[in-house]
Amino acid sequence: MPTTVNDVTEKTEMLEIDPKSGVALKATIKDEISETEPKLTENEHGKEKLEGESENKSVEKEEKIEQEKQTKQAFKEEDVPVEVEPKTGVSFPVMLADGKQLKTVGLRKKSMLGLGIKIYGFGIYADNEKLKDLLRTKFGKAPSKPTKEMYQMVIDSDVGMMVRLVIVFSSLTMSMVRKNFDEGLGASIKKLTGGKNEELTKKIMGEASDDIKLTPGSVIEISTLPGYTLQTKVKGEIVSTVESELLCRAFIYMYLGEDPFDKEAKEKFGTSLLSLF
């Protein structure tokens, strides 16, 4: 690009001129490239570095999420070994896609017309690593047999757990399931607090419609999530998500408390805890 009059004027104004001789004494023109390059202060350098690190962490997080997603997609329960609940013949995979492991299996029976009716088989899953850390922190050494304190520790904890219920009673309806949990949770809450909380017990089945058809093999999954949140899925659809420490404790109490649905299942769960020490 040809030099303009303005360019010459600007450069001339940047020279020191001897007023007597008219000779240039000192040139103050700086390298045009350095003048136009932005200068970063120390703070800006630091900010640039932090932004770079933040971007790297963001990328790493996204990669981790994507990796977990791919792992879950690749995970197929039918490829995982199973444990069979002997009284119902229902099979439960020993591990879930999220890593939770099967701790015990059992049967929920209900007395109807003087008969013990098999309602559903169940499997209890838990985060093994978090259970292990909790046990070692609370107890240090393994006791000779499962103790009441061990069960209570699990009931009171915020460890991720899930109970999978597989229906075996052919005439079961959603209203019967709702009533069953209302009664069971009500009894658990009374044991834990000495009082009733009917409003809370009714939340576990949330918006589940009584029109939902339950047949043998239908699955209900109830999970305790971080932050004392209880989530219920019926046939794969989320019907309720309730944040309540009491409700989470009362739910696990039905299976591991003083009067559990299946005593043998509770004992097996306790034995599995001992193996974590």
Structure description:
- The protein is an alpha+beta fold and 277 residues long.
- The protein has two domains: 5-74, no CATH class; 82-274, 3-Layer(bba) Sandwich (Chalcone isomerase).
- 42% of the residues lie in helices and 24% in strands.
- It is built from nine helices and ten strands.
- A six-stranded antiparallel β-sheet has the order 5-6-7-8-9-10. A two-stranded antiparallel ribbon has the order 1-2. Strands 3-4 form a two-stranded antiparallel ribbon.
- β9 (229-234) and β10 form a beta hairpin.
- The longest helix is centred in the first third of the chain and has 33 residues, at 42-74.
- Residues 8-15 and 26-37 have low confidence and may be disordered.
Compact overview of the structure:
The chain has 277 residues and is an alpha+beta fold.
Which properties best describe this structure?
Chalcone isomerase domain-containing protein; six-stranded antiparallel beta sheet; 277 residues; Chalcone_isomerase; alpha+beta; 42% helix; intramolecular lyase activity; Chalcone isomerase; 10 strands; Chalcone_isomerase_bundle_sf; fatty acid binding
Query: What's the arrangement of strands in the largest beta sheet?
Result: 5-6-7-8-9-10
Spatial gap, N to C terminus:
80 Å
Number of strands: 10
Number of helices: 9
**What general form does the structure show?**
globular
Helical content class: 40-55%
Report the C-alpha radius of gyration, rounded.
34 Å
Poorly predicted sequence stretches spanning 5 or more consecutive residues: 8-15, 26-37
CATH T-level fold name of the largest domain: Chalcone isomerase
How much strand content do the residues show? Answer: 15-25%
Major sheet: 6 strands, antiparallel
| Total tally of structural domains | 2
Report the CATH C-level class of the largest domain: Alpha Beta
- The computed structural class is alpha+beta
Mean pLDDT: 82
Along the chain, the helix and strand elements come as: HEEHHEEEEHHEHHEEEHH
Q: What is the correct CATH architecture of the largest domain?
A: 3-Layer(bba) Sandwich
Region (Disordered): 30-80
GO cellular component, one term: chloroplast stroma
InterPro entries: Chalcone_isomerase (IPR016087), Chalcone_isomerase_3-sand (IPR016088), Chalcone_isomerase_bundle_sf (IPR016089), Chalcone_isomerase_sf (IPR036298), FAP1 (IPR044228)
Domain Chalcone isomerase: 149-268
